[in-house]
Structure formats: C-alpha cells, structure tokens
## 1
Amino acid sequence: MKSGIKFLILIFMSGLLMSGCYYDNEEELYPAPDDCDTTAVSFATDVQPIINDNCISCHSGNTPSGNLRLENYSQISANANNIYSRISLPVTDVNHMPPGIQLDDCIILKIKTWLDNGTPDNKK
C-alpha cells in the first residue's frame, strides 16, 4: 500500500514539474499576419491612409471629437502614442478607438512600426 501511495505522489510531483516547463514565445503566441509587410512603413503610404479610413471622420473639422484633430502629419505624429494605445485596447474598453471596431492586426502593427521608427515623415 505504501508503494502505491509513493507511486501516486511521484506521478503527481512529476506532473507539477513538467507543467512548470511551459515557455511562452511572443512570436508564436501573437504571430504577425503573413501578408503584413512592415519593412518600409511610411507616413504617406501607410499611416495617413489608415487614419483617413478609420479616424478622420470624427477627428477633423471645426469640432473634432475629443478636440483632437488628425488631419495632417504634425497632428498625427504628436498623438502617435495615444493613437497606438487606443487602437490596441480591447474593443470592449471604453477608451478603444475607433468605437466598436477592431482594426486589423496588420493596421495596428503598421502604426506600431511607424511609432517605433520615430514617426518619420518619409515621402514614399
């Protein structure tokens, strides 16, 4: 009987030890979309069209939402961190932008790449 209990304890302990060997790899957990090219993200070609398609309807004109205009490079680059943090939130978060819409992973990755590169105003 004692050997049976020792065997069960050994199996249980082995299971605990093995479960501690799990290793999270960010690239495996959150892979970049296969067709998302971020090698040459530019403001004119990538970022401005994203803003125009998803933000400009609310963030332009005489009374922009949140008193935030995103009509040109200087306005967009000055708010790049805020833009990225808002589009990265879960769609259910009250601060998520655009409201009720989850942007494609590639769009978010392009904004992040542009931000990580220092928000250049490259004309490509």
## 2
Amino acid sequence: MYDIKAIYEAESVEDAVRLRLAHPEAQIIAGGSDVLVQIREGRRAGKELISIYGIDSLRGVCLDEEGSLRIGSLTSFSHITRDPLVQKHCAVLGEAVDQIGSPQIRNIGTIGGNTCNGVTSADSASTLHAWEAVVELTGIHGRRLVPIHDFYIKAGTVDIRAEEGEIETAILIPRKSYEDTFGHYIKYGMRNAMEIATLGCSVNVRLSKDKSTIERCRIAFGVAGPVPMRAPSAEAVANGQKPTRDLAEAFSLAVLEDINPRDSWRAAKNFRKHIAVEMAKRALTESVKRAGGELL
C-alpha cells in the first residue's frame, strides 16, 4: 500500500538530529496525516522516513522562563484546542486548529507537521503569523529561533536545514504578542468540515485600558499569497485609532494593498479579494468585542 524505502524511529531529539544528518534526503514524519497520503498518491514514493512520533518530550504546552507560550511540535491539534494555557492566552489558535479536517485528523495531526508542510492554506498558519510566533529548530549546532514570517521561504518550502540535521521542536508565542490581546479566526470553505481553506483570516487586537483605542492590531491571511502573510497596510490603519465602524471599513479595504491571491479551481482571484475584505471587517469587529470594546 505504501512505497517506503526505509523508516527510522528516533528515540530522542538528539537521535533525530543524528538520523537527519545520516539520511539528509529522508522525510520527517510525525502524525503522518499528510505524509502517508502523499506517499500513497505517489508524490513521495520510495522515500526514506524518519519518524519522530515517539519523542514524548516534543509534546505539550507550557510557559517558558520568558513567559512565552511554548507548544511542542508534536502536540496534536485536539490537545492544543483543549489546553488551559492556550485557552487562557491564545484561545484563537485552539479555535483555528479545531477547524482542521476531522476529529481523527485532529487527534493525530501535529502543529509541527502543519507548519513544516509550508502550505499557505494551513489553518494554524495565519493565526501564528498574526500572533508573531517564533519557530524553534534544533540541530547539530543547538537551538535556533526563527520568526515565523521568515520560516516560510516559498510555497511548500520552509527554512529547515538538512545539512545541520534540524527538526522543528516547538512553536513559541511571545508574551508581548499574547498579553491582553484577543483575536478571531475566520475560515472560508465550501464545507464546514474536511475542507481546505479557500481563504483564512486571523485578526487580534489589544485595546487601551479604557477600551477607547486600538493600541495594537495584527492581521494575517492564508491563501492570500504563496505563503501565509501579514497585511501591514491594514495594521497601520488600525493601530492607535478608535474602534469605529468607519475604521473597520477602512481597515478591511486596506488589506487589498498587501494580499495577492491566485486564481485556482477552488476560487477566482477576485472572489478571494472580495471575501478577504469582508473577513477582515468581521474578524476585527469580533476581536474588538472579545477585548471588551465595541465599534461605535
């Protein structure tokens, strides 16, 4: 059923790095919800695999010594959604990954696999970009931290260096990104389940203490370009402004200055632009509401 040349089981992060150096052409496999499908379809037929699924130290969520929310790369989507720290500090990430696939896929699929695939439609990707996540990579030279917007190099390609034996070991959401910040993720698809996003939009805001001003706003999209992307023009419109309906309108229209979706069989470019504007407006409105404010 599966054309696999060889499979190596890593027992630790150090063992995974050693195996990656010894087999630089091998494919890392975690939950396998994507890789095994690709092998069955022939796209990765005959590949060597390095399984990291047995490395339990790569599972779980905690706050590190700097207060960053640290999510181990093998943490499943269902675990992320239910985790108390995620619910407290970045609930929107749990909501986003809860829209992936089916319950079975969410139980086996991992945040590391979702990011390392490098696809722009990944439901975690736009939220991680909007929350300025940092990717932790571990290799022969130790630990390397890469801002997620630098991690995605081009469509389907991420910055993991085989010659240094690197594997992704965690996703970090800095305290400065989540503190007093509230967000909302919207996924547009033709179905409510088992659907790849036609477009994804994630917004978060931090309001002033009196809720009268947007102190900080971030917005990111998936499927609005070859890689997940922020919309800095829209952020600049909202930052430091009062949350009003006119602002939401200007904010949503400003995303068109940054996004560049493509035509595909799923949706036309112009349709994606149209729904991007509406999604931005709705996501900002809900984020302000969750932060305790309202649009006047």
## 3
Amino acid sequence: MRDLFLTLFVFGMIPVTLVRPQWGLLIWAWISYMNPHRLTWSFAYEFRFNYFIALATLLGILFSKHVRIRIPMNAVTILWFLFVVWVTITTWTSLNPTYAWQSWERFIKIQLMVVSTFILMTEKEWLNRLAWVIVVSVGFWGMKGGIFTITTGGAYRVFGPPSSFIADNNDLALALIMTIPLMGYLYQCHANRWIRMMILSMMLTSIVSVAGSYSRGGFLGLGVLGSFYWLRNRGKILRGTLFLAAAFIMWGIMPDKWHHRMEGMFDENATILEDKSVTGRLAAWDLAMAVAKDRVVGGGFRTFSKPVYMHYTPKAQHFQDSHSIYFEIIGEQGYIGIVLFALLFLNSFRLGMKTIRMVRGRPDLKWADSLSAYLQLSLVGYGTSGAFLGLAYFDLPYHYLTMLVMTNVVISKALSEEPADSREEVLGRDQPGASSTRRHPGLRRYTWPARLDRTLESRPGRVPLSSGVAAGTRQ
C-alpha cells in the first residue's frame, strides 16, 4: 500500500512540476533527505523516483513561462562554479577512474539541482517552503531516532535510512546538527502554538537522536552548536541553565558503553592508538596528505581505497574512508580543491552577514535576518562535525549556501524596488545643507552634493534640485 501511494503521489505531481517546477524541486528535496521509498516494502524500495522528478523539474525550468533562467553572480556562485569545474578536472585524472566517474555523476546531479535552486527559489515563500521540506524530511528521522533512544535507554545506536547519504550513524548525526538550527528558524517564525510545539518536540528528539547515534563528531558538533546559539541570543542565563540541565539529563540517562565511547575524546590517560576508529582516521589523513603532496589534482573520487593505501602508505593497517570533509577534499581534490571548498563556505557565511546588515532596523524584513543567522549556524555545525565525518559532497550544505545566496537576492530586490519616499523614511534625512544622506546597509543611493546646490542657487531663475523643484523652473 505504501509503495502504491508513494508512486501515485510522485507521478501525479509530474504535470504540476512541468508547469510550476518549484514544486518539483521541493519534491526532489523531500525524496533526497527523507528517502520515503526506504519506508516501503515492495517495488518502490529501489525505484528511482528522484530521477523522474528531477527530469520533470529541469524540463519545467526550460519550458515554463513562469520561470526566468538566471543565476545570480557573486563571489559565492563564482567559487561554486570553479569548484564544480575543478572536481571535473580531478575526475579526468583520478587514480580510480572507473568508480570516480560514478561518484562524479552523482555529484553533478546534485549540482544540477543546486542550479535549479538558484533559478527557482526567488521569493520568500518558496525559501520558507524549502526550509519546511528540509526540516520535516530530516527531522522525521531525528524524531524517530530520538523516540527510539528514549524507549531503549540508549542501548542501541541510531541509524538513518538505508542506502542513503545519511544511512550511517555518524552521517545522520551530522545531518541532524545541520537541520536543528533551521528548526529554530521555523519555530521563531510561527505564532501558532501547536506548530511551535511540534517544531520544539522535533528539535528535542533530534538532539536526543544525535546522542543516540553514538557519534563523537556529532556530540562535539552539538556542543559547539549550543555554544554559538547561546552566544548569539538574549537571555543567556536562562538559556544557559536550560542547556546545561538538558546536557546533564542526557548524560545521566545514557548507558555505560555510551559514556566509555564519549569519554575517550577527553581522557588524557587513554591510549589513542588502542582505538581502531581513531587509528583508521589517522591513517586516512596521512593518505590524504601524501596524495595531495604527490599530485596537484589530488586522487579524484574514491581515493580512499585499498590499492591507493598500499601505494602511498604501505604500513597502514586499516583501510577506511576519510572521516573528515577537509581531508576528504585534500585527498581527492588536492590543495587547490580545499582552498576553493573553504572559500566557498566562508564567502557564504560572509554573504549571510551582509544580508543581516542590510535588513538591520527593518522589522518587515526580520525573516531574512533570522534565516541567514540560522543558516550560518548550520554551516558552523557542518564545519565542526564535518571535521570528523566524511560528507564533503552531501547535498544539504550546498542547498544551504544556495539559500543564503537567494535570501540575499530577494532582500536586494525588495530594497531596490521600494519607492524613493519609502526609502527616505527608512534612511532618514540629514539637516539642510549636509553633503550626504545617511546610508542604509545594502542600499546604494545617489546623493546630490550640497556644493552643487549652492552653485545652482547662484544662477538666476534656478533652484537647487534637492529642494524638490525640477531644474529650470523660473522663480
């Protein structure tokens, strides 16, 4: 029954997608992050729903009269384009070409939908709908895992949907850490008590789910996320007390094996090399540095394989994935790749700060301030937990940087289209004779110099332009 319902829904939305491709992008995000087909039992379990909905979305972009194909040009989009080109170059020169092209194909499909987000998410309403889709999709697994952890006393690890980007317990923890701030944005936006209670329960169970994943990187990211949230909000004493109380409660209810795993990060007397997981990480990081040092273009996708280990680090005893977004990029894309990758997300963070400055003092645009701030918080969580988890090509962080770009585009358009008198109310006026008007961040406004007014006043029959009377009016 689930298989039939899901199939009818997805294929029933294809005609809508061809007319309004924005809906296709939302459905694609829902399938990508929630993986609803993994909740079925028959033919839909392995069916490629995303392939058909993505194709319909791209066709809708090309032929829909409601869509204008244009990608905003700024530092973020330029760096994103350069990174995609560089990844393609490194795939051509990869150490493992057969499997590298398979990974490149998956990466490019994700980037095509990133392009679609640039084109389609051009309004506040669509950005909020996309935020809702991401929160409900990832939050479903967070709530499911949180309830499972509470009912079992944390005796078992929490995993994500099978055969997905977030199937592993560590990867699910990272996705939840990146989604919890977006839940905070939706909680802040809605006044309805029931919706807020639903979002709050999803946030709390997602936090419990991160703990239940037994992910040390996720646990560290959760601490950093809570610290940044505490620093960037008011009511620090109350929020700090609640945060510490929740941490102590969670610490107290988890079993001994969870404590043993987490305390290994902080125990100075523990021998790091006794931990197979840590040993494997160190071997992977050594491999990444060795490959990047030997090859400017890195090793390409699937560098972390046994033949490459045996060639570059023959003494390695463990052959595993990078377990770090940074070393994953260093090993597979080289030092040029890691520079582009770092600049891409740093400039996304910077663009969010610019948007926040642009809407300062504008209650009607408060949503953009909140969305940008919480997306920045999500990127902080990604950068922290990602240091110990290998999800450099996961589509969620690329979706977030796209949302930061489009939030800035929406705000810039809204401010530029405001009537002149409306902008003057926001900007305020200086005293008569001043050479400039106060300038609101994000608005580029030409101000008529006062010295030219004085020059015009000296000419018979003319009045200064700043007085509001057209030039050339006879006195």
## 4
Amino acid sequence: MNPILLYIDPGTGSMLFTILIGAVSAGYFVFQKLKLKLKFVLSGGKAQAADTEKIPYVIFSDSKRYWNVFKPVCDEFEKRGIDVEYWTMSEDDPALKTEYSHVKASFIGEGNKAFSKLNIMNAGVVLATTPGLDVLQWKRSKNVNWYVHILHQPGDTTFYRMFGLDHYDAVLISGEYEEKQLRDIEALRNINRRETFMTGITYLDTMKKRYDDSVKGEAPSDHASDGTKTVLLAPTWGDTAILKRFGEKIIKALIKTGYNIIIRPHPQSFTSEKEMMDSLQAKFPESEKLHWNRDNDNFDVLKSADIMITDFSGVMFDYALIFDRPFIYADIEFDKSAYDAAWLEEDMWTLRILPKIGIPLKEEDFDNIKEVIDRTVNDETLAAGRDKARAETWSNPGEAAKLTVDYLVKKHDELAGSGDDTVSEDTPQPAMG
C-alpha cells in the first residue's frame, strides 16, 4: 500500500480527534443520563437520588508553572476544611507532593489524554488559568455547572489569543480596566455576559509577603554600591521576543558593560526554540560575569537584580510591583492581530502603562546600553509610575486567595440551591464586579 495514502496532515488529525472526542462525549452523556434515570427509578422516584459523583470543586492546571497562582487558593480551601480536586497536566507539578487533607491532587495525563478527561468531567465549579475553553481541544463538559477563569498575571484580559475567554462563565479580575475590556468584547461579538468578581492576584500577594519576610531585619542596601550592577535579561519567547530578534547582538552589548549579567529565558524557549537556545548557550557559555538561569522559582534572581531588561513578559510586573525596581523594555512593535486586543481601538493597558514604569530600548541604543542602564536605575520618576500601576491592576492586596474561594463557594452554593444541575451556555449571566 502506498504510504502516502496513510498520511494524515496535522490539521486533519486534530479535526478528526475533535470529532472522535465529540462522539465519545456524546456517548458518555447518554450513558450518564440513563444511569441517573435508573438511580431515580430504583430509589422510588425521590429527588435526593440525584447523582452523588459530582465533584464540588475542581482546579485545573495545564502546567506546573501556574502552581504559584493556585497554591494560595488550595491553601485557603485547606484552611477552611473544604474538599477540592486539583487536576494537573504536569507529572512533576509541586501540588502532587504537597501534603493536604482536603486537596486531592491528580496527574490527568498530557495532551489528548488530559482533554478527553476534561471534556467529560462531572463537577460543580471549575477554576482554571487556561484560555481557549470550547475553542480548541478543551470542550465544555455538559456535566460542569460553572467555569471560572483566574488570571495568572497582571494585565489585559485581551492579551489572549482570540476567543480565549469567550466561553467561560466568569472571570476573576484585578483591575477595573479588565472588566471594561471584557464588556467591550462582549458587545462587539454579541456573546454572553460573563460574571466578573474583583479578587486581585494570588501569586503577587504570596510573593509580596515572601519579599517582606526576606528583608525583615536587613539594613537597607544599595545593590550597586560598588558600581558593579547585576542586570537580568528576562524575555518572553516567540518571534517578537528579545532573544529571537536580537539574541547575539544584545548579549554581546550587555557583556561589554562589565556588569554581572543573568539571562533567564522563558521556559518555553527551551522547547519551542531549542535550536536557538543551544546556539546562544554555546556561543555565550557560563562565566564569572555571565550566568544562565533556569530555576523553577524566579524569586531569588529577581531579588538579586538591580535592573531588568525584558519585552512583553509578565515578569516585568512582578519585578516592578513587588521589588519596586526599574526595568528596560525592548521597543518592539507588538503585533496584536492574533489577540483579542485586535478587536478594540483603545490601546492595551499594558502598552499604556509601560512608558510610566520602564524605559524603552531601541536597537540603535545597544552600543551605549551601559548609559541607558545607568540612567534608568537613577530615574526617580518611574517610582510614581509603579505606584499608579499598583493602584490600577492590583486590587485587594493580600486578600486574593480568600476572595477567590469566597466567590467559588458562593457560586457553588447558589447553583446547588437553584436545583439546576447544569447552567445553560445560552443564558446571559449578570456581572458581579
């Protein structure tokens, strides 16, 4: 047989998998419906014979990277003695080794295996950071009452690939501008109104407490008191990111400054841009003045840096808002055509706030990058910008985990009290925020 006839292109393969999952899901739901009817009949037709296998709360994480977002929420559930299941697609997720009495962590596999389980899950309220619900492989389960999105960093709700949040029932937000973006998208697309609830940002609360604890008893110190600064290069990944655009050129320029240089690439770069990373690490090996950082936890490296250089990585907000230090961002034109931001005429909040909390770096400035670094470190106007950013994007500091669980419990009880086992996707939902 001609092997070409057996070839299925990736797009067709994905479509066939979606069709298969749809067929399996439909069969599953038919089976579940028959099972419920049988339970109802065997119990003498009493309403309390309803399905008892529904999981009240599920937290879904598609990567161990988001444990810093979910751990405070799990801790709050544990503190209240409320049972919750944590489903992860990372076999080495720290949650799997964290000892809880009320949080049950499970590895549900990767890729299609995980989505197959998610698409037929039976749960009351599901919390996730993952965009693209009911857009790609992750489909809404008919046995889930309510899907809630939690942000994994400060910034725009339009900074997702198109339609990323369209099919969630609720979005937990941290700034008023985020709700406005959601409402504007809803009006333009004529989609259902999603609930919003102002919680804040869980991992920022945890990081701030950790930072405060780490400096207790320490005398105020000037990181660069001896004139030798530590510069952290912390880019995101992709075609518009620093390393892809300026890799060798910017690293050479930084080495010439004589400062201590730490390069911390986005973890995805080592997977999606492996060839580039291998090449850069070979050309610029570890030395007394140059270090490649791949720690799972970025706290220590952020704390050690006098200044950071980045692009559109969310780490810039961690650095500015928690450690209260200035940063330089590559002046790269952001292509928003693939993102929800493309639907709106107003600039993204991130692009509006950037010039107030950081200094742009153009390619022609690479030759005098040392002067740009020194000028930025000494720019006192950036402190006011950081205060403005905190006020606009970090609501309820220190309270995010509590407010998140408050919302989840209230919504679960509300749905259970209504007597509805499911929530129709066609029913517009009121906003709470």
